[in-house]
Design goal:
single chain, 16% strand, alpha/beta, 91 residues
Amino acid sequence: MVGEAGDGASAIAMAGVLGPELVLLDVMLPDTSGLVVAEQLAALPSPPRVILVSSREASDFGDVLGHSPALGFISKPELSGPRVRMLLGLA
């Protein structure tokens, strides 16, 4: 099942309903930080794996990405199936 949410609140609600295995999560959302949403997703009974994405580079976020429960970060220009598989340990 695939879903798409336009903001953090919708992402949390949809994850509770759809039970995704993987969430590609933008760091910068209209209503909150994707980092906050990643923490909330990690607290679900069956948490999905989360990969953070952004049009900005990882260095723009300092070391906060390393403190996230997300598997990792991919900049949107580099977002691809092989990069996702690599973070999932499937490469």
